[in-house]
Design brief:
heterodimer; A: mainly beta; two-stranded antiparallel sheet; 1 helix; 6 strands; B: alpha/beta; 18 strands
Chain lengths: ~100, ~425
Amino acid sequence: MLLLNCPHCGPRNETEFNCGGESHVIRPSLDCSDVGWANYLFFHHNPKGVNLERWRHTFGCGRWFNVARDTISHNITAIYSMSEPRPDTSNGCVGAEVLS
Amino acid sequence: MKKYSLLSLASTGFSKRNWPQAWGSRPLQDAYDVVIVGGGGHGLATAYYLRKNHGIRKVAVLEKGWIGGGNTGRNTTVVRSNYLFAESTQFYEHSVKLYEGLARELNYNIMFSQRGMLTLAHSRHDLDAQRRWANAMRLHGVDSDLLDRSQVSQLAPALDCSPQARLPVLGGFIQRRAGTVRHDAVAWGYARAADALGVDIIQNCEVTGFEVGADGVQALKTNRGTIKAGKVGLAVAGHSTMMADMLGFRLPITSYPLQAFVSEPLKPVLDTVVLSPASGLYVSQSDKGELVVGGGLDLYASYAQRGNLATVEQVLRGLVTLFPSFSRLRMMRQWAGIVDVVHDSTPVLGRSPVPNVYLNCGWGTGGFKAIPGGGWCFAHTIAKDEPHPLTAAFGLDRFARGALIDETAASGIAH
């Protein structure tokens, strides 16, 4: 079981949340190629290690936020708001296994 | 290969001598025509059909652990072909047909028990959808029978079919040729038969990188040295992304844990596989008497082969809701396998962006039933460098073309 620290409500049980998949995926312009659009929709990172992902406190405040979570240990190393830029993963504090 | 028969097993059993090794441990060679990465059911079946159907001479299967130790040994052993779309139905039906003849083909008892798979309808909408689904199967030549509540109750008396049930059973449909197969025997049977044809099965050999030249892959780097390869087939399920990362391309895969549970053994109580899409539960009784229980995917991506407690609770809640008499059962074991989930829950089988590298992945929660068919079509794809007609729609290019085959909605279980 994860104890997720919602930035708005504090620590809550994982059953109150939904995971929305990879964060920081940037939508290409609408005149992009079919391959570019497929990459945006389907071809995401699936790292064995730290993953940067979006979570929603569905059964609480209903708001989205970002989480850095290790996909093997499930350790959460960072929680930050949707508007914050992708954190620097090179110094190891969020993990070195994230692909750029 | 020493042929197994009643006579040979009896004589070897009584003499307790000369049990032949089922497959050899041959030395690793420097170069192969085809190297298959992943010694699960799909990898071993592919190697077998590469030799048997296509006569490829030098074939190796590299497995980082032991053969059949991944998802092949972690699934709930159900085999079926009750899909909705033509592409899926025809492919999985081919696989079920191969399973029907597999024990004889491999000279290995895979214990295919065609006890049927019953899908329950809990609402008027379910009944309507199942009528369409079951008829679509029949149009594709796959057996299916619609059942009313009394027929369901007769088939599975332990089900709570009373009108006041939390999930009322209004009916269902059954594929009678579906059933369960001994999962380990599939890996071992293919390994033994492939070994007899000269395939090198190399265990404890982990791939750590690839050498790629201008005209495609040339060699694999492993913990046992560099191996030259004409072609490489990847069949590593939930870890396909690790291979793609090494080769420098992306896959439309997210890796999730899928859990299963086994109860203490019981006297015979359930002689069919029961699936309830509404509660996300399916259950069958093994030949040993244990109930084998499975549910949906875990709630978030993970490579931890242990599983999430919220999912355990949901699946077991479904079990005792449908079968109130099972509420006193003790569960003996719980485990998880890491499955490779694709957005449209249809596998990826075909060429990769790197020349001479081929993909067999994206099976999600449904890879076990697809082992013979997947191996058959993947061997064809590798040997001829073109897709098998049954898997032509399963290529990686379908995502850019928008030609998804969305079985998540169609076949009732998201995988």
